[in-house]
Every structure is written in structure tokens, then in C-alpha cells.
Design goal:
7-stranded mixed sheet, disordered C terminus, about 20% strand, alpha+beta, 11-stranded mixed sheet, about 950 residues
Length: about 950
């Protein structure tokens, strides 16, 4: 029983030992002679990290079976500071010479160990930090010959340590086939690099001819790709084996070049406006240069990791640029995106693979060097197509340029303007026939070559033109005077253009002689009266402005204003042709009476003005009197009928406080008007202290004030009540009066101060229209007041009474506001009604036919016959206030007023007494039978707004 138990324990121990031994076994790769004719990949291996890089090969062989990490396919370690061990067990034919291929160019340190039954065969050393001839066989990556293997399996250990990303594609091949592989690899890499260099040189030559920037960027990109492949395939190590660091330096520099120049090429070929992307591009380029150049001085794992990240970012940037080109519909943008897709795949996938984020397919590394070259070839084909399009455009542009040149030559020969070329010294190099005709008539254009422009323009003017050319960006234009070959002056428009490339000046000369003559004629017409040939009002104003402003070359001392009398008689009797002939003859007569330095102007239809130069007041008065006598003695004959004229002359000294030409003309005109009012045919000197002149000035000032009052509403309606004397009042009865509110002081101004000016300057019609429109609108806006209203009286001027348009306006206002016509009474003065009796009666009858009442105002003031009353269709007779004032103590006025009442009663007219100022006068009028009274005793004028419906207090006085 004990023996059986001992046997079971021994069996269990043997089982565990066998199991443990099996667990320490390495992955076995069995090779045959047939397999070794081509490279055989090591697909299964164990990987062990040595963080401190302190383990020996024997220690690793003991530990890797237990602690190693199984790897299937190509081991991808990425960036690491540790040393790494890879182990595999080989079973190869005896005496077969094997070579190990490590398919990565940049591995800093590489060691290879072979063990046969725990006995080391080796080691073998290699790495990119060693000289090329010490790395093993002359192969682009690493090709290391292994010792001959005997019978049985052998353990292969590979130790690697590097700052760059570690990827270990391992292959085994027979020694004979390895030599063929070396030759094939060098041939392949040489062809690839040669093709890329030829491509770069070809497009560099194209750039030297076409000067297109995308050609330069493409050529530099192809050159960088070629040099990158020189490093990748270790051609630099083959050529310069004594410089082991040269491949890494080339890789850093060419990587930066590929990233920068390819990005510039894409943006330039697509002709993109990068905008804000330019800042991103510049920052990316700066980072790439900093990392690549820094990597030459400092070899650190972080340097390669950062560069790997920048390659990824550049790929994303280039993808964004091409998507932007597609979005902006740039020509060939989809083709560029398709051609560069292979390079983009490398720039996006390889960096991710190096950090271990994604695995790459097994055959991907075989395409690592060919995809960029393929992209460059596709780019070249597309760029040639684009350049062919550019060539066709250039040929078309060349044909267009030739056509334009031929057109220019035709224009140069047949242009109506003179065209020339000259040097900076002014010597003519070329001239067209038009310039020859302008300068010399029969002169040929070829005869002008060598002629100095200083002879035509003058030395000083040519120097000024050259200075302006230098200061005004090479272009100058002006109107100037030149002399032709016969030294005749010509006005021309000269345009010069400096051509620095040809060191010459091109010019155009346009003849302005006819235009200048026309301008002078227009200036003559603009400054002179077309009828008389005298100065016109505009020119007179200019001369006055210069004199009063102190800028005149000729200073004038006095202004005479002549206003003709009886000129209208000639126009009315003989027509305007006779009037024009009179003015022409009179202008000539006046011109003979003036001194040489005086200026005579026509400033109106029958008004003239004279400017006297540097004379005193006495001499000016004598000159004015001479002109008056000349007009008085002038006799105008038309068709055998003689006519005599007179003139009223106003004299103004220009030094007597005159500030501007408007004031000067106004004061001189006022003096002539005053002379006209004082009896005509006389001279009146302006005197600011003259009362009559001041009154005339005041009336002139009312012109502007009355116009503004009508336009801006400076008038306001007042009312004065009318009281019934013989019966009780049946409603409101008042007369509408007008007041002017001064906008400056706010004070009320009575009509007595502006009615004379309004009548003289024809403003009464406008005032009547304003009153009617505002009164009707006010009555319509106050319906309660309108219902209480019995009658409202409105004064009307003669111009409105006899104006059909005013009658139409009155009818429209009454209809628009729906006012009863019977409540409106129109007052006309005795002088207005009786002045044009027949016409006045007709219009008064038309007013009454519309339902309006008509009153005759100021009756008795004109001492008209009572018989005229029979011919006027009236309703009311208003007795002039001169008969009412003090009537209670004047029996004669009582008798006259009584007779007026009796006549009115016989005619069926009501009577109204004006200017009632006392109770005694009111009682006397009541005894005389007068129907109504109006005056300050009855009620003073008040603003009409006090009678409005919404007024807080009413000042209404009802009539009894």
C-alpha cells in the first residue's frame, strides 16, 4: 500500500515537471528548404519588456517563456524607453545559412542571440546608430546573416531599443536568396528615387518658364519625397557609410519639407482664399519646423511622438483645405482630393499605428514608400492637365493681346486726338498723324520725332508737369496752353502717364480751342444781358460782392439805381418789340453819358444800375443828374409816334454801412422808389435817417414777414361783437378781424401796420384766402358755437372780390365744411364796390345768389352819390366811423347819419354804426333808428379761440 502511494506521488511530480517544461517552451517556427527560397515571416513570438535594460540573454531565455507576452503577426510596440526582447524557436534544415530581415529602417540598437541547448551562438550587433558597413548586409533596412544551425531546434532572441516607434516585421530567408533580395531592393529604391528626382526637376524647369507658384511647391514636395525615400531606403548610408546619423537628419528635414510644401501646393493649386485658416497653417508650420530642427540637436522619444502628432494634424489640415476647395467649387478640387487620398491615408493611419491605436494590414508596409510616389505621379498628371488649360488661356490671352495691339495701332494712327511718346527729357519718340496736324498742318508725324516738348509747352511748365508725375503716382492731367510749330497759342487738354518699365512718358493731346471759344462766349452771355448787351444782374451782384468784400481789382464807390417811368405805356400801345427796341437805344444813350471806368447794367425789365468808380458824393450826384437829363431828353420814335420817358434815380454810397450786395441793391432800389413817390423824374440819395425812406423800408420788410405769416401761421383770428339797437339779439353776431403775432417778440400787430404793404405788394389776396380757410375750418370744428351763431362778418379786398378763383375757393370751403352760407356776411369797402361798379355789382350778386350776405363798409368815406346804392345788390350798410365819433354833440353828423338810415331803409338795407365809443353815442344812434352798433364801447377785439366750444371762459357778447 505504501509502495503504491509512493508510485502515485512520483507520477504526479513527473506530470507537473513536464507541464512546467511545456509552459516554458518558445513558439516553434519550422522551416524547409522550399520555404526559404522566399522570405518567411515570423508570425508567432514572445515579447518581454526590460524597463531597466539590465537583463542578459540567458536571464531572458529563462524568464521569457513564463513572463513573455505572446504576439501574433508583426509586433507593434510604439514609442518606448524600455528595451524589448523577442523570442522564437527555429527548426531549420541542418547546415542551411539563414539571414534575418528586420523591416524597419530606424532602430537605434539591435542585438541577436542564438541558443542551441542553452549554449549561446553569438551575439550579433546592429542598429541605425552604427556605421552602415557595420550593420550587417548592405540592405535598405536590416539584413543580418545568422550562424549555421545544426540539428535540433534553436532559440532566437532579438533585443531592440530605440527612440523612434518600434515595429518589428521579421522575416527569414536563405542566404542565396538574400543576395538576390538585396539587389532587387536597391534596384527598386533607386528607380523610385530617380523617378521622384526626375519629376521634381521636370516641374522645376516648368516653373522657371511659367512662374506659376504651384509648380514650385510641387517640385519642392517631390524633391522632399525623393530625399525622404533616400533616407527610408538607406541610400544615404550606402553612399556615405561614415555618417550614421545622416539618414535621421534627412528624415527630419524632408518630413518638415513634405508637410509644408505639400500644404502650400494644395492651397496654391486650388487658388483658395484661406482667411482665418492662414493663422492655423502658420502655427502648424512653425510647430513642424521647431520639432524637426529641434530633433536634429536632441534625440528624445518625445520629439518623435510630437512629430508623429504634427503629421496627423497636417493630414487633417490638408483634408480640410481640399474639402474647402470642393465646397467653393474650385476647378479640379475633386481630382486633387482623389489624387492626394493615398498620401492622406498614410498621414492619418501611420501616426495612429505608431502609437498603437490601430493595427495596419500585413501588406501595408510594402506600400509605405510607394503610395506617396503614386500620389505625386497622379498629381503631376492632374497638374499637367491644369497647366494645359492655363496654356490655352495664355494662348488665348496672347491672341487677344495681339488683337489689342493691332487695335491700338489702328487707334494710334486714326485717332482724332494727338497721341505721343517721349522720354523724360521731353524729346518725342513717336507721334500720330493727329498730333502732327494739330501742330503743323502739313507736317508728317515722323518729322516730329526728336522735337522737344519744351518748345511747345515752355521749360517752366514742362518741369512742373514732371514734378506732378513724380508726386501723383505717374499720372497727371490738366488744361494748358501750348504753341504750335508756327508759335500760335492753342488751348489743349494734356494727359501724361509715366511708364517706368519702358522709361518713357505716354501722352494724349485734345484740342480745346473750339470749346474754349464757346466757354468764353457762354461767360459773355452769362455776364451780359441778351437784349441790350449790358452787364446783367448776376454780374452786377458779383462786382458789388467783390467791392464790399475788399477783393475787387476795381473798387466802386457809388451805386445808382434807375427806374424808368412810362415804359409800360410803350409796351401796351406798341407791343413788346417796340419796348425791346427802346431799351436797346436807351442803353446806348446811357452808355455815352458814363465815364470810362463806370459799369452800366440792366437789372430788371425797366430798371438799370450804374457802378461809379472812386468819386465823391457831389460828383456822383452830378453824374446821376446827367443820366436823368439824358433820359428826359431821349425821344423814342416807333412807326412815326414819338415817346418820351422819365427816370427816377436812387443814389447809394457804398461806404455808408453797406455790408453785402443784397443790402446795397435794396437800399438803392428804395431810394429810387422814394424818388418815384415824390413825383418821379428826380434823383434821391439814400439817407438812413430819412423818415419817408424808413417807412418805405419798413414796408419792404413786411414782404418777407407776410409771406412767412401765410406759410407758417403767424396770423390769428380775432372777433369784435356787434350789438342790436332796435330789437333783441337772436344769436351771436360779430366781425372777424385779423392780427399778426410777431414770432420774435410774441406781440400782436394790428392790420393798420401791414395792410398798406400788403396792398402795395399784392398780398391781400393771399391774406383773404388764409382768413376764409381758417375761419371755415374753425366754425366746423366748433359745432355748438356754430349753432348759436347768427352772423359773422368778414372783410374782403378788391382783388379777391373780382377774382373768380377766390369765389370758387369760398364755395368749396363752405361745401367741404358743410357751413350754412346765410351766416356769413362779406364786407367790401365803398371805394372797392364803387370803383368798378359794373363788375363789382356782378360779383356781389353772385355772392348773394349763393346765400351769403354782403355789407358795404366805410359808407360815406368817399362822398359817393347815394344814387350808386341803387345799382349794388346789398344787405347791410355800414356807416363810416368818421360820422359816428362825437355824434351826440354834432347836429350835422346826426343829420347826415339820419339821411343815410332813411336811404338804407328805402332800399331795404340794415344799418351798422362803427366806432361807437360812449354810451351817449350809443343812445343817440338808437334814437336815429340805426339797427346795429360796433365799437370799443360795445366790445373790444378778442381772440376768436375764446368762443371755442371747449374754452374754459367765454368772452362772448351777444347782440341785442
Amino acid at each position: 500500500m505504501v509502495h503504491l502511494l509512493r508510485s502515485l506521488l512520483v507520477l504526479l511530480w513527473l506530470t507537473c515537471a513536464v507541464t512546467a517544461r511545456a509552459g516554458d517552451a518558445l513558439p516553434l517556427l519550422q522551416l524547409s528548404n522550399e520555404q526559404l527560397t522566399t522570405p518567411v515571416s515570423i508570425e508567432h513570438s514572445l515579447l518581454l519588456e526590460d524597463p531597466g535594460a539590465q537583463l542578459t540573454a540567458s536571464e531572458v531565455l529563462q524568464r521569457i517563456g513564463r513572463e513573455g507576452r505572446p504576439v501574433q503577426g508583426t509586433p507593434r510596440i510604439g514609442y518606448s524607453r524600455s528595451a524589448w526582447w523577442l523570442a522564437v524557436q527555429l527548426q531549420a534544415p541542418p547546415a542551411e545559412r539563414l539571414q534575418l530581415i528586420v523591416g524597419q529602417t530606424f532602430l537605434d540598437d539591435l542585438e541577436i542571440w542564438l541558443f542551441a541547448d542553452q549554449q549561446p551562438l553569438g551575439p550579433l550587433y546592429s542598429g541605425s546608430l552604427r556605421p552602415f558597413n557595420e550593420r550587417g548586409e548592405p540592405y535598405p533596412q536590416f539584413l543580418i546573416s545568422l550562424p549555421r544551425l545544426g540539428e535540433g531546434p534553436h532559440n532566437l532572441l532579438l533585443r531592440v531599443q530605440s527612440h523612434s516607434a518600434i515595429t518589428l516585421p521579421l522575416q527569414l530567408v536563405g542566404a542565396q536568396q538574400g543576395q538576390q533580395l538585396i539587389a532587387h531592393s536597391w534596384l527598386q529604391s533607386g528607380l523610385l528615387v530617380g523617378a521622384l528626382l526626375a519629376l521634381a526637376l521636370f516641374y522645376l524647369l516648368k516653373y522657371s518658364t511659367l512662374r506659376e507658384p504651384q509648380l514650385a511647391y510641387f517640385s519642392l514636395t517631390a524633391l522632399c519625397v525623393a530625399l525622404y525615400n533616400v533616407s527610408l531606403y538607406n541610400l544615404s548610408g550606402l553612399l556615405w557609410p561614415q555618417w550614421p546619423l545622416l539618414p535621421k537628419w534627412l528624415v527630419n528635414l524632408t518630413t518638415a519639407g513634405m508637410l509644408i510644401f505639400s500644404s502650400l501646393f494644395l492651397a496654391s493649386a486650388l487658388r483658395l482664399e484661406l482667411g482665418r485658416l492662414r493663422w492655423l497653417r502658420d502655427a502648424l508650420f512653425a510647430a513642424v519646423l521647431l520639432v524637426c530642427l529641434g530633433g536634429l540637436a536632441i534625440s528624445h522619444a518625445y520629439t518623435y511622438q510630437t512629430l508623429n502628432l504634427l503629421i496627423l494634424c497636417t493630414g487633417l489640415y490638408q483634408l480640410l483645405v481640399m474639402c474647402l476647395g470642393v465646397y467653393q467649387r474650385r476647378p479640379y478640387a475633386p481630382g486633387y482630393l482623389l489624387c492626394w487620398s493615398a498620401a492622406l491615408v498614410l498621414m492619418l493611419l501611420v501616426p495612429l499605428s505608431r502609437v498603437g491605436l490601430i493595427p495596419l494590414p500585413p501588406g501595408f508596409y510594402a506600400l509605405y514608400a510607394y503610395l506617396p510616389a503614386l500620389s505625386m505621379l497622379l498629381f503631376g498628371a492632374l497638374l499637367d492637365k491644369q497647366l494645359e488649360r492655363v496654356r490655352r488661356v495664355l494662348l488665348s490671352s496672347q491672341a487677344q493681346a495681339i488683337d489689342n495691339l493691332e487695335q491700338y495701332q489702328a487707334l494710334f494712327r486714326h485717332s482724332g486726338e494727338g497721341i505721343f511718346r517721349c522720354d523724360r527729357d521731353g524729346r518725342l519718340l513717336e507721334a500720330n498723324p493727329s498730333l502732327a496736324r494739330l501742330l503743323g498742318g502739313d507736317t508728317l508725324a515722323t518729322q516730329l520725332v526728336g522735337l522737344p516738348l519744351q518748345r511747345l509747352l515752355g521749360e517752366a511748365q514742362w518741369r512742373e508737369l514732371l514734378q506732378e508725375l513724380d508726386t501723383q503716382a505717374g499720372t497727371v492731367s490738366c488744361e494748358c496752353q501750348l504753341h504750335d510749330l508756327a508759335q500760335r497759342p492753342l488751348w489743349v487738354y494734356l494727359s501724361l502717364h509715366l511708364r517706368p518699365q519702358r522709361d518713357c512718358i505716354e501722352g494724349i493731346v485734345v484740342d480745346l480751342s473750339e470749346r474754349r471759344a464757346l466757354e468764353e462766349r457762354l461767360q459773355q452771355l452769362a455776364a451780359h444781358d441778351a437784349l441790350t448787351g449790358l452787364l446783367n444782374r448776376r454780374e452786377l451782384e458779383r462786382l458789388l460782392s467783390e467791392t464790399l468784400g475788399g477783393t475787387a481789382k476795381r473798387r466802386f464807390s457809388h451805386l445808382l439805381h434807375l427806374s424808368l417811368d412810362r415804359f409800360k405805356q410803350v409796351n401796351d400801345l406798341c407791343g413788346h418789340s417796340a419796348g425791346d427796341q427802346l431799351l436797346r437805344q436807351l442803353a446806348t444813350q446811357l452808355g455815352h453819358q458814363l465815364p470810362r471806368h463806370a459799369e452800366l447794367a440792366r437789372v430788371g425789365g425797366d430798371e438799370f444800375a450804374v457802378l461809379l468808380r472812386e468819386v465823391d458824393d457831389e460828383a456822383a450826384l452830378k453824374q446821376a443828374e446827367a443820366l436823368r437829363r439824358a433820359v428826359e431828353q431821349f425821344v423814342f420814335t416807333w412807326q412815326g409816334r414819338p415817346f418820351r420817358l422819365h427816370t427816377s434815380i436812387g443814389l447809394l454810397a457804398l461806404g455808408s454801412g453797406v455790408r453785402d450786395w443784397e443790402t446795397a441793391l435794396t437800399w438803392a432800389s428804395s431810394a429810387s422808389q422814394l424818388a418815384k413817390h415824390q413825383g418821379r423824374n428826380r434823383v434821391c440819395q439814400f439817407n438812413p435817417e430819412d423818415g419817408a425812406l424808413l417807412e418805405h423800408q419798413r414796408q419792404l420788410q413786411w414782404i418777407t414777414r407776410l409771406r412767412e405769416a401765410c406759410e407758417r401761421g403767424h396770423f390769428e383770428l380775432f372777433f369784435q361783437p356787434v350789438q342790436a339797437l332796435q330789437s333783441a339779439a337772436s344769436g351771436l353776431h360779430y366781425e372777424v378781424l385779423l392780427r399778426y403775432r410777431d414770432p420774435a417778440s410774441g406781440e400782436w400787430v394790428s392790420p393798420a401796420q401791414f395792410l398798406d404793404a400788403a396792398a402795395r405788394y399784392d398780398f391781400l389776396g393771399a391774406i383773404d384766402r388764409w382768413v376764409i380757410q381758417h375761419l371755415c375750418a374753425w366754425l366746423a370744428a366748433n359745432p355748438r358755437h356754430l349753432a348759436q351763431l347768427a352772423q359773422v362778418n368778414v372783410n374782403l379786398s378788391a382783388s379777391s372780390l373780382l377774382d373768380s378763383a377766390f369765389h370758387q375757393l369760398l364755395e368749396q370751403e363752405l361745401s367741404r365744411h358743410q357751413l350754412p352760407p346765410g351766416k356769413l356776411c362779406i364786407e367790401v369797402t365803398e371805394m372797392v364796390a364803387l370803383g368798378e361798379l359794373g363788375v363789382s355789382a356782378q360779383w356781389i350778386d353772385e355772392l348773394r345768389s349763393k346765400g351769403l350776405k354782403v355789407a358795404l363798409d366805410d359808407f360815406g368815406s368817399g362822398f359817393a352819390s347815394y344814387a350808386y346804392l341803387r345799382h349794388l345788390p346789398l344787405d347791410i350798410l355800414k356807416i363810416d366811423g368818421s360820422f359816428i365819433s362825437g355824434i351826440e354833440s354834432d347836429p350835422i353828423n346826426q343829420a347826415m347819419v339820419g339821411s343815410m338810415r332813411q336811404i338804407a331803409s328805402q332800399l331795404g338795407l340794415l344799418t351798422v354804426a362803427e366806432f361807437v365809443e360812449t354810451q351817449a353815442s350809443l343812445d343817440c344812434l338808437r334814437r336815429l333808428g340805426i339797427d346795429y352798433a360796433q365799437g370799443y364801447f360795445v366790445g373790444r377785439p378778442q381772440p376768436l379761440r375764446q368762443l371755442a366750444d371747449d374754452a374754459r371762459s367765454r368772452g362772448t357778447q351777444e347782440a341785442w
